[in-house]
Each structure stands twice: as structure tokens, then as C-alpha cells.
Amino acid sequence: MTKNKGHEPIIDRRYQLEETQRATEIIHKAMGVAQNEIVNGAVATYIPELGKVNPNQLGLCLYPLNGDKICIGDYNVRFTMQSVSKVLMLIVALEICGLDAVFGKVGMEPSGEAFDSLVELDVNDTKPYNPLINSGALAVCGLLVKEVSFLDMLRYARNVCVDFDIELNEDVYDSEMKTCARNRSIAYLLQSKNIITTDVEDVLRFYTKMCSMNVTAESLANLGKKLANDGVCNIDGKRYMSSRTARIVKTLMLTCGMYDGSGAFAIKVGIPTKSGVGGGLLSVSDKRAGIGVFGPALDAQGNSIAGCRLLREISNELHLNLFYDPEWNKEDAGDIVMQEMEK
Ligand code: GLN
Fold first, then answer.
1. Which one, 15, 82, 201, 290, has least CB within 10 Å?
2. Ligand 1: does its nearest atom lie under 6 Å from the Cβ of 277?
3. Is the Cβ–Cβ distance between 115 and 134 less than 8 Å?
4. CATH number of 19-322: 3.40.50.620, 3.30.365.10, 3.40.50.2300, 3.40.710.10?
5. CB 246 within 8 A of CB 284
6. Is residue 148 scored above 50 in pLDDT?
7. Predicted local confidence at residue 114, as pLDDT
8. Which ligand 1 atom sits nearest the alpha carbon of residue 116?
């Protein structure tokens, strides 16, 4: 730990998770509950290649900052990152292009619309709502393609995810490129608004390649762990992004990471999370753990149905809600409020 320059694991009791064996039992139980949700979801089919994925898979990797990694179920099955890659694009854009450039192109507000919506974008004379929906991420890509190559992004992804087997899934990439009329429309609309000022087809290819990177729940947990720890690896003290970038990304994940399901997810689960239609979920339990989930059956918003349930269960049982504090656990204060009213 001597190399850990100012980033010793945090030992504040509030950030301490259950010990590994107990946490593992809790997660096993939660898996059972979550598996029952799979029948209520379906794999994405608008990208034909994703329609071939077995919907019954479910896996999780929870990587605490002070403790052993817990890996369960299909935690090492490869799937395409899809919209989870919007987090990587945002990190790199904030670092390389800067905050002003990024938020000159996209807003910071939840959209309340589907992830691939273009209605508001067309009707209003505005920028895309935020960088974690398709229109916003395409706008961010418009900046990125001028600065970095896909290979640069792949290298960054491999390092930050500690997964040197991340590759472009050519089949999913080809499949999406053939069926991406909607994203193409969004991108040309962004060009018409001068938000994309470079070759639109280059931007589309870059964006779709980012979505087609093959990761595992474990690789996402590694990325989440760095976001949870101020952008720094807790093991070797190496920094992967600035504190400010980590903060902005986590805030946007909380407010916008689950598209039009973001508000309910924040209330029910309370962990900043980004989903992708490949079934991935990247979750950041701040100061505590990185979590990666894979469950390809999706709900109506395009979020992993069993994965969300799994996170909800473990958030409750392991007290991962962002606003939870062990000292603050009075659940019912109706009587107190009444007393205050009667005074
Ligand atoms: N590649 C997908 C798309 O652009 C990503 C969407 C998602 O994961 N929600 O439609």
C-alpha cells in the first residue's frame, strides 16, 4: 500500500460493506429473486444480432474498495457494452476536449424520453438533453472523433476495465450499422443544428464501434471501482481521470443513466448506474464498490430487468443507497411529524 499516494482504502465505518461471506450469501439470495424477473423482459431485437443472445443469463461482479471481489453467475460472459460506453466517451471527452466544449454541445438534464428519441431535439431549438442518451452521446462523439481514434478508446477501455480481452464485436457492429437508421437520423439532425461539425458517417461508425465493445460484468466492476474511488485505482494508486470528471460522470449516471427510468431507479436503488441494451449495468457505489451486472432480458425502457431487480435487492440488503447512513435509520417518523404539527 506504500504506492497508494493519498488514496488508502477508506475505512470510515459508513463505507464498510458486509464481510465477504455474508455479502456473498446476500447476493446469492438476491440472484434467486432477480432471476424470477427474467420472464417479464426480452432481449433487444432492433439490433438483430442482439436478438440471438440467451435471455436467461444473469451475472454480477461486486468489487469493494476494501475487500474481496464477489463474482456470481454469468459474471465473465462477454456482451456488448452498448450505452454503457457512453460513460467512457464522456470521461475521455471531458478529459481531452474539456468541460466547456462538452457542455457546449450537450445539456445536463434528464430527458424523460426514450434513449433514441429525436422528437424533442427536432421540436426544440436545443442541444441534446444529456450525454447519456443517443443524441447526446453522438454529439460527444462529434468532438471525440477529431481528437482520438477508436483504437485509442479501446486501449483506454482495456486499461480502466483491467480487461485486455476487450475487442470490437464485429458481428454486432455490422448488424447495428445495417439497422441504425434512427441514430443516423439523429446524427444528421445534429449536423443540421451545427452540433456535429465533422463527417457524420465517421461519427456514426465511431459511436457504433464504441457500443460494440465486448466486455464482462467483471470488467464493468473494475471501471466502477475507479469511479467510486475518485478516478483512482485503489490497488496501485494510479489515476485514470480527474476528480472533477469522476464527479460529473457519477452525477449524470444518477440523474440520466437509466433514461426515462432514471428517477424511479434513483429512488428504488439509489446507486448511480448506466445501462446498455446489451444487458449491461455499470454501477458505482460511491466510496464503497464498483458493480458490474449482465442480464440481457430488458424492460420497456431498455434496462436489464433482472439486473435492476438484483441491484435493488443488494442495495437494500447491503445498504448501498447513496443517501443511506447507518446512523440515520429511523424508517417511520409520522408520529414525530404529527407532534411537530400539534405544537
Ligand atoms: N447501440 C445502441 C443504440 O444506439 C445503444 C442503445 C442503448 O444501449 N440503450 O441504439
1. 201
2. yes
3. yes
4. 3.40.710.10
5. no
6. yes
7. 77
8. 10
Residue 274 grid coordinates: 448506466
- 14 with 325: CB under 8 angstroms? yes
**What pLDDT was estimated at residue 19?**
84
Q: Is residue 291 pLDDT above 90, yes or no?
A: yes
What residue segments make up the domains of the chain, in order of their start? Answer: 19-322
The closest residue, in CA terms, to atom 6 on ligand 1 is 83
Q: Does ligand 1 lie within 6 Å of residue 83's CB atom?
A: yes
Mutate to test the pocket of ligand 1, among 43, 47, 169 (most ligand atoms within 8 A of CB): 47
206 pocket-lining for ligand 1 (C-beta < 6 Å): no
Q: Which residues of 95-114 are buried (b: 16+ CB within 10 A; e: fewer)?
A: bebeeeebeebbbbebbebe
Of the listed 43, 277, 284, 293, which one is catalytic?
A: 277
Average pLDDT, the chain: 93
Burial group, residue 289, by CB count within 10 angstroms (0-12, 13-18, 19+): buried
DSSP states of 289-316: EEEEEE---B-TTSSBHHHHHHHHHHHH
* Residue 207 known to be catalytic: yes
Query: Quick count: other Cβ atoms within 10 Å of Cβ 324?
Result: 14
